[in-house]
Amino acid sequence: DAGITQSPRHKVTETGTPVTLRCHQTENHRYMYWYRQDPGHGLRLIHYSYGVKDTDKGEVSDGYSVSRSKTEDFLLTLESATSSQTSVYFCAISDGRMGDIQYFGAGTRLSVL
Amino acid sequence: GQQLNQSPQSMFIQEGEDVSMNCTSSSIFNTWLWYKQDPGEGPVLLIALYKAGELTSNGRLTAQFGITRKDSFLNISASIPSDVGIYFCAGTGANSKLTFGKGITLSVRP
To answer: Is B40 left (phi over 0), alpha (psi -120 to 50) or beta?
Structure first.
């Protein structure tokens, strides 16, 4: 398994509260990604990072922010969680180019009540 | 933008049967990947394809990179219960970004 750890694995929170999800890798890969997975939508890219402090938006970035202060850590923050952000969140990593094979973490199941 | 089409959304087969899944696009792709996601887990890479016409096997799985570079298929032979899960295709096209299909959920009846 690629060395990717997501924490927490499960979280229940209330609408309007801030939430931070963490992705930690031990592979020293350059690229890190955050996806959300919802029934009927597959995997949708939220944000990605191509280096320390270098990040860019994906297709569903509204309501989310990210930070990457170290190569190994990529944080996803929901500033004020909404029920529409209830989802399963996956972190992925890749080496080399943007289109390279991505390796996924085990996911975080988030419920916003 | 680049899109990958996988259909149907769900497939139901009997244990022991073979199953084939397609992934199609109107755009040309340079790399095709097939992932499987077990319930409660993240997607895991099954097969990677890098050249048009390439045929690659991984155990009971076989995948091909279409000659037109606009499609790929995955074949699972002699299915077993642990083959259940969601199968995603993914590809890298002209924009150099990895695009994912929406996945096919496979159920295997014993």
So the answer is: left
